[in-house]
Amino acid sequence: MAVFNEIADSYDGWYNSKLGSFVDTVETGLAFKLFNVEKDMTVLDVGCGTGNFSIKLANLGCKVTGIDISDRMLDLGRKKARSLGLDIEFYSMDVYDMAFKDNHFDAAFSMAAFEFITKPEKAVEEMFRVTKTGGAILIGTINKDSRWGELYIEKGRRDDSDIFRYAHFKTPDDLKELNKDRLINYGQCLFIPPDIAEEEISMERELKLSKTERGGFICALWKK
Predict the structure, then answer these.
(1) Residue of 187, 182, 184, 205 whose CA lies nearest to 143
(2) What is the pLDDT of residues 194-213, one digit of tens each?
(3) What are the tens digits of pLDDT across the range 45-99?
(4) Long-range contacts made by residues 83-92, C-beta under 8 angstroms, separation at least 24?
(5) Chain-centre distance of CA 20, in angstroms?
(6) Please, are residues 100 and 66 in contact by the beta-carbon 8 Å criterion?
(7) Among 80, 87, 122, 203, which one is least packed by beta carbons within 10 Å?
(8) Whole-model pTM?
């Protein structure tokens, strides 16, 4: 999708803001609370974008392969990985028809990409296919049923040029139903609202709101 190439150069700028950095921190914390990393495990990062989580996985000792449909984002991911001395393979590839053999990876991982996947059942089926028996599949995505989901839905409605115009958000039940028989864990994070004042952004605030608010980001873990 050409729109992802258009936003690639500005995409990482979000993480430089206080809110963006905090969002990344809590989403990362949830992902790695659920996903058990083992040194030298082979991991497929689906919808890797500019390599945010590919790099995190590689830094934890994983052998990472990232796929995405945006060539520009992949180019940026390669440059970032090279600058850090990380050996990550990046490929332009469609999640619905991946060019990997059955049972190829120890695990499959996808963060902040399923918002833009129109056929999630088919995508999950492919992720299971390329993962070895006993391997983990983790998916993290924006919660449609949250203040963050409401914000992004409204942004997509208001602005024809906004990336979220192309989003297909999932509720917690939507995510869990993708392969409910093999679901082994689930979690939420990002309880702070998107309009929070910068001075109020803190982990203490996040933990307090977790008792009353719906998480803006959800993760599910399956085992093949």
Answers:
(1) 187
(2) 999 999 999 999 999 999 99
(3) 999 999 999 999 999 999 999 999 999 999 999 999 999 999 999 999 999 999 9
(4) 84/55, 84/59, 86/55, 86/58, 86/59, 87/58, 87/63, 88/51, 88/54, 88/55, 88/58, 88/64, 89/64, 89/65, 90/48, 90/51, 90/54, 90/65, 90/66, 91/65, 91/66, 91/67, 92/67, 92/68
(5) 14
(6) no
(7) 87
(8) 0.94
